[in-house]
Amino acid sequence: MNLTLKVWRQVNPAVKGKMVSYHLTDVSPDMSFLEMLDVLNEQLILDDDDPIAFDHDCREGICGSCGLMINGIAHGPEQTTTCQLHMRSFSDGDVIDIEPWRSGGFPVVKDLVVDRSAFDRIIAVGGFITAPTGTAPEAHAVAVPKQDSDAAFDAATCIGCGACVAACPNGSAMLFTAAKVSHLGLMPQGQPERDARVLKMVAQQDAEDFGGCTNIGECSAVCPKGISMETISRLNHDLLGALRAGAVPTS
Amino acid sequence: MRRVTPRSPGYHLGSGHTLFSVATVTTQQAPPRAPKTGRFSSSVVKKAVMAVSGIIMVLFLIAHMIGNLHVFQGAESFNDYSEWLRSFGEPAFPPRTLLTAIEVVLTISVLAHMWAAYSLWAQARRARPVAYVSKKRVQQSFASRTLRWGGTIILLFIIWHILDMTFGAVNPEGTDSSPYDRLVASFENIPITLFYVVALILLGLHLRHGIWSATQTLGQTTKRRERSVNAIAIVFSTLLIAGYLVVPAAVAFGLVD
Description:
heterodimer, A: alpha+beta, 2 domains, 5-stranded mixed beta sheet, B: mainly alpha, disordered N terminus
């Protein structure tokens, strides 16, 4: 396969970036998208050029490190992570636009790498439970209804890749926040902090220059884990319930 | 492999340098931003304000649409209905009590809806300071995409509609006329009727996404209900807008004159 790649090149956050075209020949359809970029980078290095910076780690679709806007769709044409996208999804002669996630909360570090520590700060304000230390409690001591544990597990599959933010026309991180809020909120262990958690995490998502959710559904459509819009509905329900119960938003 | 465009600015040349720079890219931790603590600064609360004010306006739209259908019972019935609205509750209450109450509630709803919309629009603008070079739509509906501009056009229409039908300021039948004559005079004017039809279709699209969105915002949707909520939104907005559009259609085809 021969491809033309238009890649966002940006030296550092302070410099304005731009799209740069590269031609790549002899791409195997069995390569993953990241392997294709590796091949391009090897050639750039041999040409004494600056290789393209992009995030990646496990390359098996579970860590959430990789994430590129490919032809205007987060993670590209398949609903999976960029590392699990293969070149067989493209055809010979294609022109592929590759951009970083674009969001006020995800400043570009270099080329295709964005700083996603805003997600860490959302987690830090409430994405945890308070549990006494010591030996692990007996697993059957607290019964969890099957329905709740399934829903909590669906939410917990979120790998925090940021595709929801990248795809959202409002640049909202509500699907991520909702997944983190509800996977704890559905479990008995998550109940003590349930009200405070949702208020703090939503306040932090708003403070990180992410947008508000208008229920358009682009996030769920590109989520590699297929986390549904129901999760956001559950977050809204929890937040309004917390305010009715008299919980006060605090920083 | 061939490179087409020139090198990016700030590029440093030097043998071996590029290999090192791969390993030395570090992530700078941005300073943490303090979240706002006000109840109404939460984007979810803003959405809830939008949902509740929207529901109030939808209830009004249902009543208004049914009221309009009196036009098919003739001029007298339509004018009597209008008079009944004006004198509702008399003599226990002063004239226009019901209408004033509706006007106050609707004005508050419209203002709250606009405040939430503006505030969320401003937040969404901050959330994407650099636009994508290429961005595709994966599943979003036309209705959800036209919500903000549609809402603005609907607002302009409401202002026109009040000047036309309530105050008669821009109506050929003027201020002293009966509501039936005003209605006929307005819909016999083709540009005004077209504006009415366009605004009503935009309102239908607005409601198609709005009803789904309000249900979602108030935390009432589940994966199982998602399809039926969307189906109800489509059927309801189609029926409502059809109910409004039969009136200008009847005037155009001479059924009402």
